[in-house]
Amino acid sequence: MKRAQALGVRTWIEIDRRALRSNLAEFSRRARPAGIMAVVKSNAYGHGLSLVARLLARQTFRGEKFGGWFGVDSIVEALRLRRDGIKNSILVFGYTLSARFSDAVRGGITLTISSFEGLAALRRARLRPAFHLKLDTGMHRQGFPEHEIPKLAALLAHWRLRPDGAYSHYAFPENARDSRMQRGCLERCIRELARAGIHPRIVHMSATGGVWERRDRYPMVRIGFGLFGYLRRPVAKNPLQPVLTWKTVVSEVKRVKKGERIGYDFTEQFRRDSVIAILPIGYWHGFDRGLSGVGEVLVRGKRAKVMGRVSMDMTAVDVTNIRGVAIGDEAVLIGRQGSEFVGADEIAEKIRTTAYEVLTRINPLIRRVIRER
């Protein structure tokens, strides 16, 4: 209760500075000598865009500050980082409207060009931002596919546009054969560009999974989800530490009789006399409705099952077997309390999605604070 009262909020996110630093150090070691781009798109995967970027920008290794890039999805995120004092290089991965090119120039922000329409818009622009080319090596989202590279190279040379970088993305980094196929495609594209005199200074392919599997040795790697302590697939002896803990407080405690029902649609019936705790969070906050009747939270270091439907702003949990639960007790929705841990992976499995979605869907209005250990 003290933390909630001090912050003046009913629910909050704690960001573990030491865990973030430890994860960054682990990936720096694995990627060496490649430079690091810290991917903080989508509100830093739910952890807080500017808060995380500032923490990373202040990190020092071997006496030097983190000098790497930051990667974001949109010009809006990039400008927010500039507004909040981030001076590192920034790459925007997503599509940028040509009306925002001048903002990118003024902010010293590098954009991604992934189509001929985007390239033509860049040529017409009065102010031309720095840019990286996105190359489609098989994933078929953004990017110029291999058969279009000769045309791309010719236009770049003719229009005298010089990309500062070129990159692609592994679809399945855990699969060695697919990764070799994509890497080979990227290298052929880079050679084709070189034949036209186009030499991107920075080539990058690996994200978290690619670095973990050591798939290539390009000059830069992009680390996103791994920074926050998660991998796409479980591994033995994982040295990464989850960075985020999501907490709320118990707002009511009540006793219910055997046979009574609970929540919208009365989806659950109590099989015994029970004690329930009400938590002032719900699916609006990002606590998924799919956790109705199956999710668990931590109260007084023990697991408490979600009872009935998760509502928009409230959730009930069964604390019958947890002694002494009182209004104001902290409840952990994601993270550790005592010896128990509820991870985003566990939640994702219960609602049949990914940990990425679990974390990025946490409401950005919820306050994020630095946790000091």
Automatic annotation (TrEMBL):
Start and end residues of each Alanine racemase C-terminal domain: 243-371
Gene3D superfamilies xrefs: Alanine racemase, Lyase, Ornithine Decarboxylase, Chain A, domain 1
Enzyme Commission number, as recorded: 5.1.1.1
Catalyzed chemical reaction(s): L-alanine = D-alanine
Pathway: Amino-acid biosynthesis; D-alanine biosynthesis; D-alanine from L-alanine: step 1/1
Keyword Isomerase set for record: yes
Positions with a binding annotation for substrate: 141, 312
Keywords from the UniProt entry: Isomerase, Pyridoxal phosphate
Superkingdom classification of source: Bacteria
Known cofactor(s): pyridoxal 5'-phosphate
Purpose of the protein: Catalyzes the interconversion of L-alanine and D-alanine. May also act on other amino acids.
This protein's name: Alanine racemase
Protein's organism: Candidatus Sungbacteria bacterium RIFCSPLOWO2_01_FULL_60_25
Highest classification ranks of the organism: Bacteria, Candidatus Sungiibacteriota
